Description:
Elements: H1 3-18, H2 24-74, H3 78-89
Helix pairs in contact: 1-2
Amino acid sequence: MKHGVVRKRLDVLYEDKLDGRLDATLFDLKAKEFRARQNAILKSIEDHQSANQSYMEEGIRILKLASHTAGLFERQPAEKKRRLLNCVLRVHPGNTAA
């Protein structure tokens, strides 16, 4: 359920209370439920925004590392180069590249 939908339901609930169509006990119960939903929606939005920022930061770090990869590789001793290439080029089941 979207935050705006919950907000509208709270508004209608309040109007029903003011107009006498809803007693205070039921209003309090339903208002509490709707506010809990709103808080859950806001938490979910915050979590997604935080995750998006983390992915962007990780992507930037990967791009920076990738831009220096050739130089880093060239400075390594032959044995480390061989181990890295073996790892990168390892043939996995179902992979026909050799």
